[in-house]
Amino acid sequence: QAISISPNSGVFNVNTPYTFTTVVSDPDGFQDIKYCRLLINTSVNGKNCPYLYYNLNNNKLYLRDDANTSWLGGFNPGSSKVIENSYVKLDCRNTAKSTSGDNLTVNWKITFKTPFKGSKKSYLIVYDDSNAKSGWKEVGTVTVR
Questions:
Q1: 10 Å Cβ neighbour count for 36?
Q2: HEC string for the chain
Q3: With bands split at pLDDT 50, 70 and 90, how would you rate the model's confidence at 75?
Q4: Integer angstrom CA distances of residue 69 from 21, 32, 33, 92
């Protein structure tokens, strides 16, 4: 299940890096989690926004392109790579994951860009290895200025 994001609300400035911490869980243990996705937009729509993806099985980070047609990146947390679209940068070096019990925690280091200004909502979804999914859960609000 999709659990939480922290901070779950606030005002965030463009061109300033922030860490958003997400927690997802699987009752069969974190080892059964395939991946989690974080989407920040006005609705559950992956176009023209930060739509982030962490795959636990291959330990890779991704970001959706502006048109929501393909995944960019595929880099390990802690690597020196930056993945970006027109709305956000994902700093892989300062993005980290941890696991404990049933939980997967991802600390996403992101920087919003000017075209993303405005009020948005944060959503989480998690899939397990059998492709069972939590469904999108609204977990917070973001105002980018």
A1: 25
A2: CEEEEECCCCEECCCCEEEEEEEEECCCCHHHEEEEEEEEECCCCCCCCCEEEEECCCCEEEEECCCCCCEEEEECCCCCCEEECCCEEEECCCCEEEEECCEEEEEEEEEECHHHCEEEEEEEEEEECCCCECCCEEEEEEEEC
A3: very high
A4: 26, 27, 24, 21
Report cis status (omega within 30 of 0) of the bond before 7: yes
For CA atoms 84, 3, 68, 62, give the dihedral sign: positive
The whole-angstrom separation of Cα 55 and Cα 57 is: 6
pLDDT band per the 50, 70, 90 thresholds, residue 4: very high
Q: What is the pLDDT of residues 86-126, one digit of tens each?
A: 999 999 999 999 999 999 999 999 999 999 999 999 999 99
